[in-house]
Amino acid sequence: MANEKTVFPEYDASTLARMDAYLRETFRPADGALEEIRVRAAHAGLPPIHVGKLDALHLEVLARAAGAKHALEVGTLAGLSGVALLRGMGEGSKLVTLEYEPKHAEVARETFRKNGFESQAEIHVGSGLETMARLKPAKPFDLVFIDADKENYPGYARWAVEHLRVGGMLIGDNTLGWGMIANTRFDDAEDERAIRGLREFNTFLASSGRFRATMLPTGEGLTVGVKLR
Ligand code: SAH
Ligand code: DHB
Ligand code: MG
Q: Ligand 3: distance of its center to the CA of 140 in Å?
């Protein structure tokens, strides 16, 4: 039965388009400040791989719901998701964000400045796993958002669970793997490595006993877990 499916009921294309327009009108997930980031990032030659528009809003609302004041992000890009998290965390909050590409970090620095978050965002340039090995956070994080290289999601999650407070939230982007998450065959070895990483990440959140977790099956897929122990 169609309504027993877990992900995506079978809306036809015109229903989907109408619902999409409704969501844009009603929840207004794309404001001027976030659009400015997308445009400036494109002009700087960055890939347009920011979180989806509703996912940025999800991050803001989740950060607020979690009462987070101290967050870690892996994969800064132009700082769009960072701005969403900082908006949700509010006054006196702090975001530590890790980025491999110096050019992306430079665009993000400008984003945080333009949006009034200069003193609340700390960007570390380098590989996420190497930076984590050196980071000595003064207190545990309330929220960790993972959105960098997919094959390293399991490593990021293993570090994150040891540096999150109990009750803290771990979120991963793209965890439906562009529709490939349940594929058994892959055309491309790189896709296969990415999907294996995403699956191991999802399984860790779902089955390790360290989290109570679910999937927000937005276009990109956002896995959300709350740390139990
Ligand atoms: N979270 C951003 C999008 C991140 S895109 C947003 O929604 O606004 C993924 C980013 O991860 C890219 O900027 C890429 O350069 C970075 N990245 C890729 N591999 C990485 C690694 N090993 N360590 C840290 N960052 C990495
Ligand atoms: C890619 C990475 C992302 O984090 C994303 O949200 C979309 C695309 C990518 O590497 O292509
Ligand atoms: Mg992503």
A: 24
